[in-house]
Design a protein that fits this description.
6-stranded parallel sheet, disordered N terminus, 14 strands, 470 residues, alpha/beta, globular, 8-stranded mixed sheet, binds nicotinamide-adenine-dinucleotide
Length: 470
């Protein structure tokens, strides 16, 4: 009789959440944790976004969003008002009261390229200590392929019995700048687990996505590999196009035409074929390094990814090379306007941004920097408090001997070049995102460089659609 009741209760445990919403704790309320937690709330679940950073939680509890991400503040506000989204720095309490614990802590690079899993380890320790009933433990942080074995043995070390949790690898693919949309309308959801119970819970968790998507159900190791494969492949694509753009610059070929034509090939696709000053952000550089490191650990190699990293490091020096080609080698005492500090548009994230490499070189060479970014100045100020920061592009351009565009913020593409030319000391633009109209630059007497000589330059071929002859 007792046994029957026990089976009944565990079945209710298994089934009841399938027809309702889950109580979820997100451990780590950063770019990924805050966005995915808010999106889970939007899907109807009850979410606590928790973090060890008390200042961040306090801000969020007072309605202040600590990151810039389009549409996110509105989504947070709505879900807080509807009482599905909460913030807490009381991690033990949140863990105890949740069915699902999503780990979204940072996994930065160590000096040797290996992923630093210290934050993940503390999160696991806390879960083990406070998991008093069955928990689905979801690893959303990007962790090296094979980490799930370590996680399992750490949970053993912390005396969490295997029967009291289901472990899932559920890597995140959101892109900063369009993160909420990516989270609610993902191209695919990866669920890696050896536990059928946890897999069912995960399928149910994502059941209220507003649009159908592909679900890839696999084991944990494969799920981890999918994340690294995806990110490093994109890094390869960017490094390839950057090197090709440099070659186009050297030979006089038009990169924009080359990439447009390449992208028409369905096997290639036009995505990620825009040349620029090198990739940054918290993912591509760190994940490429970690994959190379993992390969070494297994006596294997990822030479292509290593090459992509090398090419990227070189690419980050291209803006200064181009600057020197127009302004001369001696940069000391020159006023340089930097437009764009974030690693990409529509975010305030500056991690591994090309702006950092450019700023470092300019400072070493004794140049004076006037920097502007619509959203990333507060973050850059923490790193470089000594720079002069401007409130808008024109203030940054005032009296500058040259300007470098490093981020593709849309407001840079609509700069009034006549006004810019009138206030700059010298009319020089290094447009590393190809956002300016080159005919306007010429018309306003600017000397300029782009990357790949592409951008808005007139494309000297015509396109026509070839109907299927059959
Ligand atoms: P982040 O640095 O913005 O946020 C991490 C948060 O975790 C911080 O607020 C930190 O205070 C908190 N934290 C650290 N240790 C903690 C602990 N023990 N308990 C609770 N909170 C803790 O990092 P992020 O950009 O959100 O990235 C998180 C993970 O997601 C990383 O593994 C990253 O590789 C991966 N990822 C990031 C992106 C992205 O675009 N940022 C996209 C996909 C995947």
């Amino acid at each position: 009789m007792k046994k029957k009741i026990a089976i009944g209760i565990s079945l209710i445990f298994l089934i009841s959440p399938l027809y309702g919403s889950y109580n979820i704790t997100i451990l780590g309320t950063g770019y990924v944790g805050l966005v995915s937690g808010t999106c889970f709330a939007q899907m109807g679940h009850h979410v606590v976004c928790a973090d060890i950073n008390k200042k961040k939680i306090k801000q969020l509890s007072h309605g202040i969003n600590p990151i810039y991400e389009p549409g996110l503040s509105e989504l947070i506000k709505r879900n807080v008002q509807e009482k599905r989204l909460h913030f807490s720095s009381n991690l033990p309490e949140s863990i105890e009261e949740s069915d699902i614990i999503v780990i979204a802590v940072n996994t930065p690079s160590k000096e040797n390229g290996q992923a630093d899993l210290t934050a993940l380890e503390s999160a696991l320790y806390l879960i083990a200590k406070h998991a008093h009933n069955y928990k689905t433990i979801v690893i959303k942080s990007t962790v090296p392929i094979g980490t799930n074995h370590q996680i399992k043995s750490r949970l053993d070390d912390f005396n969490l019995p295997e029967s009291s949790y289901g472990l899932v690898s559920n890597p995140e693919f959101l892109r900063e700048g369009s993160a909420s949309c990516d989270c609610l309308y993902p191209d695919r959801v990866i669920i890696g687990s050896e536990s059928q119970r946890a897999t069912e819970i995960m399928k149910n968790l994502y059941k209220s996505l507003p649009k159908e998507t592909h679900f890839v159900i696999t084991d944990r190791t494969t799920a981890e590999a999918i994340k690294y494969a995806s990110n490093t492949f994109l890094a390869l694509k960017i490094s390839f196009i950057n090197e090709l753009a440099n070659l186009c610059d050297a030979t006089g070929a038009h990169t924009a035409t080359v990439t447009k034509a390449m992208g028409l090939d369905k096997r290639i696709s036009p995505q990620f074929l825009k040349p620029g000053p090198g990739f940054g952000g918290s993912c591509f550089p760190k994940d490429s390094l970690a994959l190379v490191h993992t390969a070494k650990e297994y006596n294997s190699h990822m030479l292509t990814v290593q090459a992509a990293l090398q090419a990227n490091n070189l690419q980050k020096t291209v803006p200064i090379t181009k600057l020197r080609s127009l302004i001369g080698n001696d940069l000391s005492g020159k006023k340089i306007a930097i437009l764009g500090l974030a690693f990409k548009a529509n975010t305030d994230d500056i991690r591994y941004s090309s702006a950092i490499t450019v700023i470092d070189t300019l400072l070493q060479e004794g140049a004076m920097i006037q920097a502007y970014d619509p959203k990333a100045i507060p973050n850059m100020k923490l790193l470089y408090p000594q720079l002069s920061y401007s409130d808008n592009s024109y203030d940054a351009l005032r009296d500058a001997h040259a300007a470098i565009i490093l981020t593709e913020w849309s407001e840079f593409s609509t700069l009034d070049l006549a006004k810019a030319g009138a206030i700059m000391a010298d009319k020089i633009f290094i447009d590393c995102r190809n956002v300016l109209n080159q005919m306007d630059l010429v018309a306003n007497g600017f000397r300029y460089q782009t990357i790949g000589n592409g951008g808005t330059r007139h494309i000297p071929i015509s396109y026509f659609f070839c109907p299927d002859p059959y």
